[in-house]
């Protein structure tokens, strides 16, 4: 069923791909983004674009909208430790203003871009939604605070809401892919080495209790992620806040990812082993059972080589 959607943060990586999928599904889409980390060229053709801040959402949000998909957030773990106030202000205060604008306008459906960082150091893997939430940095804590706000909004005011907790998103969808500045994600960093933009790739610790000593992560294709958001729009029920993990349920180590990049690109990827980063768990793998059961979601692009190949194609066609 088509509708009118507001996508906050739709000039970013995930928000832009979701906006494109919404358009292709027949929805009318408005993107709200202040372009602080997003890129104008990442906004899909065919959407209405508003350059602005989520704190001012009340200026544009009205009863004609059927749903808000909320991606606008500061999302750098390291920065959140140094500038926690920035994360409380943008992620928490901004989301509170957005919820207030939705309530005032009578928009009663929300899909929220949450994160696996809400769990912190997991007690067991794969991680399920009932696992303890003990974030180890202000970024994860700010996202968890928004989840708590949404739970209260659903109970008190009948909001229909779904939070989707991502693990490692990668790949590209046509002309849309990762273009963070600065870049901090493993696959695009490795591809920058393949392109000659970096001399070597840093491996942050090779003495973890994993088969090859490097961290293991769950990688999900951005197009599979986008499809989950469209399913969440349909699955949201009034008065309920549904939380679902999104992942493939399979883990790949840092060295496995690097080797896959070598195979896909045909380039050597020199490695430099450095010290561990604080707070990096050895293994983060998701159980996506709730997403399968409640959303009917089944990721179809679980092959790591396919994920890397799509990212490589995008990287070769991108000037940045």
Any overview of this molecule?
By secondary structure, this protein is α/β, with parallel strands linked by helices. Helix content is 36%, strand content 19%. The protein is built from 9 helices and 13 strands. The mean pLDDT is 94.
What does the secondary structure layout of this molecule look like, with pairings?
Blueprint: E1 4-8, H1 13-24, E2 28-33, E3 48-51, E4 67-70, H2 77-82, H3 84-105, E5 109-115, H4 138-157, E6 160-166, E7 168-170, H5 186-194, E8 201-204, E9 216-221, H6 222-235, E10 241-246, E11 251-253, H7 254-265, E12 271-274, E13 283-284, H8 289-295, H9 304-316
Parallel strand pairs: 1-2, 1-4, 2-3, 4-5, 5-6, 6-10, 7-9, 8-12, 9-13
Antiparallel strand pairs: 9-11
- Rounded to the nearest angstrom, the radius of gyration is 19 Å
Sequence of strands across the biggest β-sheet: 3-2-1-4-5-6-10
Biggest sheet descriptor: 7 strands, parallel
Helix/strand structural class: alpha/beta
What is the element string, with H for helices and E for strands? EHEEEHHEHEEHEEHEEHEEHH
The oligomeric state of the chains shown is: single chain
Number of helices: 9
- Measured as a percent range, the helix fraction is 25-40%
| Mean pLDDT figure | 94
Strand content bin: 15-25%
Instruction: Tally the beta strands.
Output: 13
């Amino acid at each position: 069923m088509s509708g009118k959607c507001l996508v906050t943060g739709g000039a970013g990586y995930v928000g832009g791909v979701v906006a494109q999928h919404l358009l292709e599904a027949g929805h009318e889409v408005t993107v709200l983004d202040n372009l602080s980390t997003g890129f104008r060229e990442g906004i899909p053709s065919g959407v209405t674009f508003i350059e602005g801040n989520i704190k001012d959402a009340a200026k544009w949000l009205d009863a004609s909208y059927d749903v808000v998909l909320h991606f606008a957030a500061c999302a750098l773990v390291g920065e959140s430790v140094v500038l926690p106030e920035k994360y409380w202000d943008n992620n928490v205060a901004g989301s509170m203003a957005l919820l207030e604008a939705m309530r005032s306008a009578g928009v009663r459906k929300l899909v929220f871009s949450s994160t696996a960082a809400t769990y912190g150091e997991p007690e067991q893997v794969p991680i399920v939604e009932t696992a303890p939430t003990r974030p180890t940095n202000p970024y994860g804590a700010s996202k968890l605070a928004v989840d708590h706000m949404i739970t209260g909004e659903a109970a008190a005011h009948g909001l229909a809401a779904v939070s989707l907790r991502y693990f490692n998103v990668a790949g590209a969808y046509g002309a849309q892919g990762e273009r963070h500045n600065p870049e901090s994600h493993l696959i695009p960093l490795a591809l920058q080495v393949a392109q000659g933009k970096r001399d070597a790739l840093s491996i942050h610790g090779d003495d973890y209790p994993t088969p090859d000593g490097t961290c293991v992560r769950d990688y999900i294709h951005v197009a599979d992620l986008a499809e989950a958001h469209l399913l969440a729009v349909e699955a949201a029920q009034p008065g309920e806040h549904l939380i679902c993990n999104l992942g493939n349920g399979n883990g790949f180590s840092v060295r496995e990812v690097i080797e896959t990049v070598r195979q896909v690109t045909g380039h050597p990827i020199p490695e430099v082993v450095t010290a561990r980063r604080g707070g990096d768990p050895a293994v983060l793998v998701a159980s996506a059972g709730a997403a399968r059961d409640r959303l009917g979601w089944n990721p179809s692009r679980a092959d790591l080589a396919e994920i890397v190949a799509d990212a490589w194609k995008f990287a070769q066609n991108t000037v940045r």
